[in-house]
Amino acid sequence: EEWITFADDGHRALLETIKAPMYDDLGMFIGVLGIGRDITERKLAEEALKKSEERYRSIFENAQEGIFQTTVEGRFLTANSAMATLLGYDSPEDLKTTVTDISKQLYVNPEDRKLMLKMIEEQGSVRRFETQFYRKNGSIVWMSVNLQAARDEGDHVIYYEGFNEDITERKKAEGKLRGTLCELQETRDLLIQSEKLAAMGQLSAGVAHEIMNPINIISMKIQLMGMTETLTDEAKADLQVCKDQIARITNITKGLGQFARVSDKQMALGDLNQLCDHVVTLIAPRLKVENVKTDIQYQPNLPLIQMDKDKMEQVILNLISNALDAMHDKEEKILRILTEFNGGNVVGLTISDNGTGIAPEIMNRIFDPFFTTKKTGEGTGLGLSISYGIIRDHAGNIRAENNERGGTSFFIELPIKHDTAKN
């Protein structure tokens, strides 16, 4: 009676059958009832499994992330609609049919998949691995990949499974942020450099005058002493040392004076090609003596630019002189001068050498006043500072990079007005 109380409708039907004469045997009754209970439990388990599968199927289909399973070789076993959409395919079936080699067809850098599979072997899984995928139309999307391996009882990988998240917009935002930070850093560097130049300009006007007055007096006295007939050879040699040092002081003082006059410019339309050619002509004797090869590439029909020709000549001459100094110990010396215009708002000038280059740790100091890598007495450290001030005073930019030939390249950009472009 207790069994009948807890039986469902199916059990009751079964029990009615059991009452038939053919089931008078009690053992047979119990056996049939036991079978009924086994079927019910199985049915309940199947129903629970079905509901569980429906829940997970709903999650699989409605997830915003791309969920997938792939073979070891690189084919999709399963993929949800989001995965197909992220990669620009019409459906999961379209994705599975079209993509037969994930490494070659999806990964912009196929080595990334190899790296992730290696990480799974070493770490067990991959979390938030950022890489680029090709979409069906050939465009590129950034993905954050989470991946792990499914293994059999023998610990062999039978397939990979994971999910991807589209992080393209985040990457674009990060790129813009990096660009903004770089611009801010450049602006900061320009302000610092401008402040240095301004301070030097204020200092130089007074210092140049105050230094030159006593130097002129000393110079005259030394010249008078040199005219004395009774001077020994040793004394004459000492006087010559004094003259050389006075000349050096004079050159430094003249350099200081450039800071005060950097804005005192005479602007006029000029052709950068002609100006460069003029400077090369001036320095031709040194090029010949030092056996320097030149590679000069002037782009024809450059737009004219507003410039102070004398000051721009000073910049070009200084950069070429520095290039020649840097190539002093080279067996083969190559000076390259390039002008270009790409249709934008600036004309470009590049002066390169194959010399010793600039150490990375001092690259950001080369335009500082009095900073020089030359030996004592060979340079004042003012040439690049003055050149920097002149280019900035022309609303242009100047920067330096080490090139593939082992030397240094200086890049100058000068603004143009489009109505000055040549026909």
Total DSSP E strands? 12
Q: How many H/I helices?
A: 12
> What is the N-to-C order of secondary-structure elements (H for helix, E for strand)?
HHHEEHHHHEEEHHEHEEHEEHEE
- Indicate the overall shape: elongated
Strand fraction equals: 15-25%
Gap between N and C termini: 111 Å
Helix percentage: 40-55%
Low-confidence stretches: 1-7, 17-24
Structural class: alpha+beta
Rg over CA atoms, rounded to whole Å, is 41 Å
Question: Biggest sheet, strands in spatial order?
Answer: 2-1-5-4-3
Can you summarize the main beta sheet?
Answer: 5 strands, antiparallel
What number is the mean pLDDT? 80
Give an account of the 3D structure.
The chain is elongated. The protein is α+β, with helices and mostly antiparallel strands. Strand 9 and strand 10 form a beta hairpin. It has helices at 2-6, 9-18, 26-62, 81-86, 92-98, 102-105, 111-123, 168-226, 233-261, 272-289, 309-326, 383-393; strands at 66-70, 76-79, 125-134, 140-151, 157-166, 268-270, 292-297, 305-307, 333-340, 346-352, 397-402, 408-415.
Secondary structure blueprint with pairings:
Elements lengths: L1 H5 L2 H10 L7 H37 L3 E5 L5 E4 L1 H6 L5 H7 L3 H4 L5 H13 L1 E10 L5 E12 L5 E10 L1 H59 L6 H29 L6 E3 L1 H18 L2 E6 L7 E3 L1 H18 L6 E8 L5 E7 L30 H11 L3 E6 L5 E8 L8
Parallel strand pairs: 7-9
Antiparallel strand pairs: 1-2, 1-5, 3-4, 4-5, 6-8, 9-10, 10-12, 11-12
Helix pairs in contact: 2-3, 8-9, 10-11, 11-12
